[in-house]
Amino acid sequence: MNETSAALATARWPLTAAGEMDWLRELADDDGLTGFMPPALPDAAWVLHSMYEHELGPTDMSYVAYQRAVLNGGGPEIIPGLDPADVLRGTPGEPRGPRWRRLRWAELSRRTGDPVAPEGRLPCYRSFPSLREPNGWPVGISGPSEGSLDRTGPRSGARNSGCR
């Protein structure tokens, strides 16, 4: 960070006295080392990253194993009806083609019996432990992306939470 950026940051976010944050430390029951997670509220909501499912549904093969099989010379016959181009191309969190549909977190939770997020944990790529293969999500489900939400517009289908 150059000196100008540091000066701007200091001007915008001045340091506070050590005791100024005691109330937040007590409220969050945390030391605040990496930030503070506010306590859950009854009207709290998560905005969850999108997932997509191929019309064939999840398979017994993980994405990593499928990718390895394709790179070793396999083709559409690896899993009949599943085109490697539909699986291996695209942007995480975006539909991969016309044979993929939006999969809501709540729907997947009902189907697997797993909670969207285990008690005391945040929803993330580790959610749905009964579905995860040892090497990642099964082929047929494009797991949630990390770090970006759906694009706005008619292609994405929805702009907000996959959990309702």
Offer a concise description of the structure.
With 164 residues, the chain is α+β, with helices and mostly antiparallel strands. 24% of the residues lie in helices and 6% in strands. The longest helix is centred in the first third of the chain and has 10 residues, at 3-12.
Quick tags:
disordered C terminus; 164 residues; elongated
- Regions with little confidence, pLDDT below 50 for 5+ residues: 152-164
From the alpha carbons, calculate the radius of gyration and give it in angstroms.
Answer: 21 Å
Arrangement of strands in the largest sheet: 2-1-3
Roughly how much helix do the residues carry, as a percent range? 10-25%
Structural class comes to alpha+beta
Count of individual helical segments: 5
Main sheet? 3 strands, antiparallel
Number of beta strands: 3
Residue share in β-strands: 5-15%
**Average pLDDT figure:** 76
Q: Could you give the distance between the termini? A: 42 Å
Could you characterize the architecture of this molecule?
- It is a single chain.
- The protein is α+β, with helices and mostly antiparallel strands and about 160 residues long.
- Helices cover about 25% and strands about 5% of the residues.
- The protein contains five helices and three strands.
- The chain has helices at about 5-10, 20-30, 65-70, 85-90, 105-110, and strands at about 50-55, 100-105, 140.
- A three-stranded antiparallel sheet has the order 2-1-3.
- The longest helix has 10 residues, at about 5-10.
- The radius of gyration is 21 Å and the shape is elongated.
- The protein starts with a helix and ends in a 22-residue tail after the last strand.
- About 15% of the residues are buried.
- Mean pLDDT is about 75; it is low at about 150-164.
